[in-house]
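Re: Re: ligand-bound prediction request (bumping)

Still looking for help on this. To restate: I need the protein modeled with adenosine-5'-diphosphate bound, output as structure tokens. Inputs repeated here so nobody has to scroll up.
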Amino acid sequence: MKENYINNIEDIWTNALSQIKDTLPQGDYDRWFSHMSFGGEKDGKITLIVPSQFVKDKLVDSYLGIIENTLSEFAGRNCPVVFEIDKSKRSASFSHANASESPSEPVKKERKNHPLLNPAYTFDSFVMGGNSNFAYSSALAIAKNPGSAYNPCLIYGGVGLGKTHLLQSIGNYVYKNTDLSEEKIMYVTAENFMNEFMDALKDGKTRQFKNKYRNVSILLIDDIQILQKSEATQNELFSTFNDLYETGRQLVFTCDRPAEELKNISERLMSRFTRGLNADIQPPDYETRVAIIKSKCNERKFEMNPEVVDFIATNVSNNVRTLESCITKLIAYSELLHREISLDIAKEQLKQLVSTCNDSSGITINMIIETVASYYNIQAQELKGKSKNQSVILPRQIAMYLCRNLTDFSTTEIGMEFGGKEHTTVMYNVKKIEAMMKATDSDIPNVISKLSNTIRLKKSGH
Ligand code: ADP
Ligand code: MG
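Reply:
Sorry for the wait, this slipped through. Here it is.
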């Protein structure tokens, strides 16, 4: 027991904390203790309020003994401690936001739109279906309690399925419901992150870059697959990640494929992506497509003939962005020409958009080669070459298979485009993939469907 015995339990805590501060390395103290507050005493237990689940876990794992012992020393009795996560101030407290940004109640006042976020991307405007249930619920839970349960989070899925929409919904929600300043809620595409970092390197401004990204409360990075291109950016993101994560700041990423399918990502960064919650979005089923179309028409106060809704939902299945394009086109047509949209008009007007999803014309062999090469992060030239390297053989077979299935070119024509290969070689490779398409434990059908989707989109100019 300390000689200067203190009666008031809060004073005891203040003294204990100051002793802990003296004994721990400054960095550790700042990181884990500086945002803690005293929450009272109940049933002989002392409650300490901490900013996030992450901080709580760390304290329980590493510091509970020190805290209880020090407290007991000052109090002259046993002082068990419990931690509580600060819910009332969660918006700011998980984030190291300064005091003026710490509302005691979640703030529900009207704010301007966040300059980095599309205001249309909200949870309310997102139509949830079985395909997106998990990703939607995860994103909403994060928005309501950032820095806590699901950190980090990776949302992945094919093109046009709503990843960016969900990611920005998190930002919009936090921005609307808290007092966090614009700079604390950071949305950035991985491409811009990379370019900004490269510029900072070039201009000797890495310190400003680090300051910008390490002061945020919530970091939303879109399309991380692009990082496959830059090792330097990966290293920088790795440090940023650690810094933010360790202090309970929220990180959310999106990717066009599961993290494990990324190539040329350092193992340590990969382990960060896969460490937290991984939530996928699949293409919507028919009912969800109908619901999305209706919702988009509602938003624009446009009543769409049910037959037309059915026509679009039946014919556009892989991509919500294409669904939207169909609706936009029909609404524009109707408004400009003051005409009701009949099924015939819809079929005529959407001929091209719908054919994008259904038929093969207009896709070139090179388009396929480029897409497959970029997916596997190799050079198009390697696919056309003779390399027997495993990392090239499978992509080459897949590219040939796609050429056969998405275009009307003969195996001879395809062989020509692949660096003058025999048509028998093309046939052999196509057959290899056909066999894999039938194997039950193969991931190839998934890859093929994703690539086909991307190629069709490219064709339609997206
Ligand atoms: P991704 O980032 O996955 O490529 P986006 O988030 O950009 O896809 O979505 C493409 C478009 O489709 C956006 O305009 C988005 O608002 C819309 N969208 C996607 N999924 C849904 C959904 N479930 N409900 C409503 N709109 C959606
Ligand atoms: Mg996107």
